[in-house]
Amino acid sequence: MRPFSVKTKLGMLVVVSVFITTGLLMIAVRTQTELRFITVFSVIATLLITQFVAHSLTAPLDEMNTVARAISHGDYTRRVRGDGRRDELGDLAFTINRMADDLEAQDQQRKELVANVSHELRTPIAALRAVLENVVDGVSEADPETMRTALKQTERLGRLVETLLDLSRLDNGVVPLKARRFEVWPYLSGVLKEANMIATSRAGIASGSGSHTRTDVHLHLDVSPPELTAHADPERIHQVVANLIDNAVKHSPPHGRVTVRARRGEGPQSLTLEVLDEGPGIPRSEWHRVFERFNRGSHGGPGSSHGPGSDGGTGLGLAIARWAVGLHGGQIGVAESSRGCRIRVTLPGESPTQS
User: Which end of the chain, N or C, is less packed with Cβ atoms under 10 Å?
Assistant: First the structure.
């Protein structure tokens, strides 16, 4: 039992009340005072002490009730005083304040989500509307070039919606993990080829969806040993690697180089992945913000410029990568690098229950 707990205080209240009553009875016996006077004095003294202890216990509860009512009405700025108390009420105050912090952060994220999604959807919708209005008004003809422009904006909307669906799955945790053993070299080689093909097909087109459009950056694969295998969900790892490559390419200098490096981890069928670029890097003070949603200024800090041909994306790619790694029970983070940025992913591989 803690020395300052509520139970201890109530126990001390009972003990003090018994001592007061016993002491007054002894005084009554020695001074031959009538018992009724002693009873009255004992009751008054006990009530005064009880009132003092009760006030110290109920006052914080009243404040907590007021703060909780304010939080239920959407006011997440209120906090409970006394979270430094060394009793159960202090623990409760700390928990309420932490809950208010979490709710305030979630409310801010919700507002940012609505604002960012509205902004991301408005651009392709406005562009598509302008193209169609020009066709309807006779300003331009519905020739293949005009229709290609409309198709590009429609594809951009589709990619944005797919990203939002990924975000919804992330929040709801409804994506199952289908882990299996696979060979790392051919798998990652396919991911890099796909990234190059997508960039080539979209060259000169701003995607606005987190897919890079640069063809001047060289992608390099480094797997050792060449026969390396891993146990993970290939589809989810594809999301991780593709988003990391996307991010690295966008922040690379002209004709830069992005390296995807794979090594054997510590456990059986475990894997360590690294994606390195030659961009401006990330200040250590920004490392904790890299994987936040809608964080577009990760490389080089806030306000940093992206590489040529980059549109900045939606700022969800790295958040989705962190989620996919988390499904595997792995870790993702920024690692020390003498040049550019290095993102390291560790996957635990096959657990003993799966072998």
Answer: N
